[in-house]
């Protein structure tokens, strides 16, 4: 009887011991999949994600955005997927230079501006990489999957990017007369001038609002050049295209936007924003001294200037095969070059674009057509004989 009780007691202790071992194994397995287990300090990666999420509060269309938690995790399968990615191989990544960070956020968006869905405690997973332990962590992917990472040039961490925005209507395809916007880019600093129409007229990629297109543009890092293409001449006037361009939001401080007509089969469908036929609209008062009389100044008002790749045609002569040089200039630089300040242009931005005709040889009177100033809100100015004039579009093309 005593032996039987001892056996029962021993079995009980053995069961408790086995349960404890299983619990320890389960806890160890959980920690292995949620915490770093290789002893490498990846706290810098967590800080990078925290800063990224903090900046999201200022994104276009955000009503409210708060962060519940941010922590480093370890997922052996995800690491394996990343190391097997061709871009990771190209970067020479090793496991100690990869960090996985999980975040949970609360987000609310203005769906009249952006189509992004919001919610409470939404999960976002981040994959970060670095060249070695002496270099900073960089977000190389984010989302809810366990895919690879985008290629990062560690010698050029913030490369310039370009993109195209196609503006179009196509009743035969869509069944309506709505305006659609297709944003395309190849993750390079070059404009793809040979897009297929099937890629542009793709309702899976197109948006029916410029706000939604802006959201996608905001996701292209360091976007410095955007080519806006009008697909058909009859769909929009030049003024309407200019108004569309005015609504485009690009986060890069120094960027350019050009507007042009897309032409199938052409190698250069885009045009700079200052190309077209302009009319001299009005004189802008400045402290500059001019040799022109008021009668001469008034005589320029209403005259047209046609600017294109082949020539600059004015009522006072023509510049053949002009070589345009564009540069982004500050208020101080503009004053040094033109003796004009931003106040005269009603500019509140940090820079404007200065366009000089490098091969100008006095082909026109009073320097007309030899240079222009383009503001970020797409107003064009020129100086004739020391007098500043604002230009305007002619009748719609």
Outline the fold blueprint.
Elements: H1 2-34, H2 43-56, E1 62-73, H3 76-83, H4 86-91, E2 98-109, E3 119-129, E4 138-143, E5 161-168, H5 171-174, E6 180-184, H6 197-200, E7 206-207, H7 210-218, E8 223-230, H8 238-246, E9 256-261, E10 276-284, H9 294-300, E11 304-307, E12 311-314, E13 317-320, E14 324-329, H10 331-338, H11 342-345, E15 352-357, E16 371-374, E17 380-384, E18 387-393
Describe the structure.
The chain contains eleven helices and 18 strands. With 397 residues, the protein is α+β, with helices and mostly antiparallel strands. The protein has four domains: 1-34; 43-143, no CATH class; 161-261, no CATH class; 276-393, no CATH class. Strands 13-12-11-10-18-17-16-15-14 form a nine-stranded antiparallel β-sheet. A hairpin with a 2-residue loop joins strand 12 (311-314) and strand 13 (317-320). The N and C termini lie far apart (108 Å).
Shape: elongated
| Rg on CA atoms, Å | 30 Å
Please give the alpha-carbon distance between the first and last residues: 108 Å
**Low-pLDDT windows of residues:** 28-36, 265-269
**What structural category characterises the helix and strand content?**
alpha+beta
How much of the sequence lies in strands comes to 25-35%
Instruction: Please give the share of residues in helix.
Output: 25-40%
Largest sheet, order of strands side by side? 13-12-11-10-18-17-16-15-14
* Main sheet: strands, sense, barrel: 9 strands, antiparallel
Report the order of strands and helices. Answer: HHEHHEEEEHEHEHEHEEHEEEEHHEEEE
Number of strands: 18
Count of DSSP helices?
Answer: 11
Number of domains: 4
Overall pLDDT = 82
């Amino acid at each position: 009887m005593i032996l039987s009780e001892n056996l029962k007691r021993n079995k009980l202790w053995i069961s408790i011991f086995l349960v404890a071992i299983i619990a320890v194994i389960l806890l160890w397995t959980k920690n292995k999949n949620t915490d770093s287990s290789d002893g490498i300090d990846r706290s810098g990666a967590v800080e990078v994600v925290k800063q990224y999420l903090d900046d999201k509060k200022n994104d276009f269309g955000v009503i409210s955005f708060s962060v519940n938690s941010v922590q480093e995790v370890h997922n052996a399968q995800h690491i394996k997927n990343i190391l097997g990615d061709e871009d990771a191989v190209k970067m020479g990544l090793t496991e100690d230079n990869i960090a996985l960070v999980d975040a949970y956020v609360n987000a609310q968006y203005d769906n009249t501006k952006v189509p992004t869905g919001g919610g409470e405690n939404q999960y976002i997973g981040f994959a970060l990489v670095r060249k070695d332990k002496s270099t900073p962590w960089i977000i190389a992917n984010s989302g809810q999957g366990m895919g690879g990472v985008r290629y990062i040039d560690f010698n050029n961490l913030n490369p310039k990017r370009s993109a195209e925005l196609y503006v179009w209507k196509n009743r035969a395809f869509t069944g309506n007369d709505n305006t659609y916007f297709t944003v395309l880019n190849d993750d390079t600093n070059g404009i793809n001038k040979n897009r297929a129409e099937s890629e542009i007229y793709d309702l899976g990629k197109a948006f029916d609002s410029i706000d939604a297109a802006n959201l996608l543009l905001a996701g292209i890092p360091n976007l410095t050049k955007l080519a806006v293409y009008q697909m058909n001449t009859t769909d929009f006037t030049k003024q309407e295209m200019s108004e569309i361009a005015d609504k485009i939001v690009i986060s890069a401080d120094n960027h350019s936007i050009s507007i042009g007509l897309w032409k199938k089969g052409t190698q250069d469908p885009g045009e700079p924003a200052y190309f077209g036929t302009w009319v001299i609209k009005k004189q802008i008062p400045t402290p500059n001294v001019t040799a022109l009389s008021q009668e001469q100044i008034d005589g320029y008002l209403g005259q047209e200037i046609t600017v294109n790749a082949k020539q600059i045609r004015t009522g006072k002569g023509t510049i053949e095969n002009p070589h345009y040089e564009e540069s982004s200039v500050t208020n101080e630089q503009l004053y040094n070059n033109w003796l004009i300040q931003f106040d005269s242009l009603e500019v509140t931005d940090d820079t404007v674009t200065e366009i000089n005709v490098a091969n100008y040889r006095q082909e026109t009177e009073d320097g007309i057509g030899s240079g222009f100033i383009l503001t970020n809100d797409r107003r064009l100015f020129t100086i004739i004989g020391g007098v500043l004039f604002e230009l305007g579009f002619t009748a719609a093309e």
